[in-house]
Amino acid sequence: MFENYITFDRVRFKAAVHLVCDRCEPSRLGNVKLHKILYFADMMAFAGSGEPLTGVDYLKQQFGPVARHLAAALDELAAEKKLKIETIDYFGFPKRQYTSLSSPDTSRFSNAELGILNDVIDFVCSHSTREISELSHDKAWRTAKMGERIPYAAALGLEAIEITEEDLAAAANEARRLRPLIEAERSANPLL
Description:
Elements (H helix, E strand, L loop, with lengths): L9 H14 L7 H19 L8 E4 L2 E4 L2 H10 L3 E8 L2 E8 L10 H15 L3 H7 L3 H4 L22 H24 L4
Antiparallel strand pairs: 1-2, 3-4
Helix pairs in contact: 1-3, 2-4
């Protein structure tokens, strides 16, 4: 299989879970959003570098991808007194709520990886659970059958985001900035 080289890193996974729970306001984070943050961050990292953040398996479920080892990681973090887990009433439904009791260990992640995690956390926590669940029914999720593992390689085929006029202007400015450098390099080395 294409992804044989991907291995699950339990320590990094627990560190990512702890980081997410630490960064999100407990009232804005439940079990659904926690699964989705991990999924989006892992898939974005894989799409950008060919390596996921944690290597955890994501399984296709009705309401989107779920991380296979999340329950165990949460139990371990709670047993280690790093996380408080409560079930609260949320409009007549039970909702799991997570409160970080200590600072997460971020040393296992590069600055770029922390940037991905922070961007995904900010995005997911600023939207409703329903909106995030709908977004997680992406092309990668659709590649698997119900209950099957979603391959990381499916992230490479995710639909592109909309390119704005600001994006185009920034690209044009960067091209104008680089053009003299490229021309100078070509003048110095005519074989390019």
